[in-house]
Amino acid sequence: MKNIFYISLFLLISFVGTPVSAGSLESALDTSASGMRSQSERMKIVTENIANADTIGINPNDDPYRRKTIYFQEVKDPYSQTKLVTVRKVARDNSDFKLAYQPNHPAANADGYIKTPNVDKNLEAMDLKESQRSYEANVSAIENTKQIMERTLDLMR
Amino acid sequence: MDNILLMNMLESKMRYGAAHQELISQNIANANTPEYRRRDMAKPNFKGMVKSSMTSLQTTHPNHIPGLSNDSLNSYSTGSKVELDMESFEMMKNSEDYEKASTTYKKMIGLMKDALGGNNS
User: Fold this and answer.
1) Among B21, B102, B113, whose Cβ lies nearest the Cβ of A145?
2) What is the model's pTM?
3) Structural domain boundaries enclosing A145
4) Which member of A58, A120, B20, B30 lies 3.0 to 4.6 Å from B36 by CB, making a disulfide possible if both were Cys?
5) Is the pLDDT of residue A20 over 60?
6) Could you tell me which residues of chain B have a Cβ less than 8 Å from any Cβ in chain A?
């Protein structure tokens, strides 16, 4: 009886053979996590833009708040060779400032206009929405990967 | 012997599923990366799977040819941009396929346990 047990154990091990690689699933988790990090960085920039949508100078020479933009890039982790997403740079939007006619404002120029930030609140709101969607997509990717990992572990039960 | 071949095939399908999952995760993470183009990989075909499951030649010298390996998990870049809905759909399909393969695999282990007459729980 004992022999049969050992033989079956040996056969079972030899049948299972080389393990299904879990490495690619773990790097999938890392990639999704880096996507979430990048998207939350983007949300930070967008909310900064929205918060500063009315930030203007106090002198006629002052520039108001200039809109920030963010760019992503794909990088390869040198140790694990996992492909990750990071923030490439945060730049400034060089488009013209908007003008508003407010002759009594201390920052008004000779013609009575003040410069207001080049932030379009609708655009920022859409940007925020898109960022949120991408974030959610990354979360569901993580959930899916976890599910596959559980399936793999299930084979051992 | 047939069972082992079948299990090898299931195993290579699961390996494909895991690699594909990684690729889809990359696509989703890079949904807003400029200049990133969606990546895809060749689907496993039956003929290649059978071949790679059957031939496993051992090499004892670096100049030996190891035979066909099932290392065909190379990704390529498609020219198109990432669409999140499409990727979600692909991901769903992939995890379903994976589940199919792993459930079958588990069943086969169960069958073998049965055949061996061990006390299967």
Assistant:
1) B21
2) 0.77
3) 2-155
4) B30
5) no
6) 3-4, 7-8, 11, 14-15, 17-19, 21-22, 24-26, 28-34, 36, 84, 87-88, 91-92, 94-95, 98-99, 102-103, 105-106, 109, 112-113, 116-118
Beta bridge partners of A113: A101
Phi, psi of A22 (to 5 degrees): -95, -5
% residues pLDDT > 90 (chain A): 66
Helix, coil or strand: residue A91: strand
pLDDT digits (tens, 9 = 90+) for B21-77: 999 999 999 999 988 999 888 887 777 777 666 655 667 777 766 554 545 567 888
* ipTM greater than 0.85: no
Q: What are phi and psi of B34, to 5 degrees?
A: -65, 150
Whole-angstrom Cα distance, residue A48 to residue A42? 10
SS3 B105: helix
Question: In chain A, whose CA is at the least distance from the CA of B93?
Answer: A144
CA-to-CA separations, A16 to A61, B108, B117, in angstroms, rounded: 75, 10, 18
- As a whole number of angstroms, the distance between CA A99 and CA A117 comes to 9
- Contacts with B, A 69-128, CB within 8 Å: 71-74, 83-85
Task: Give how many domains chain A has, as a whole number.
Answer: 1
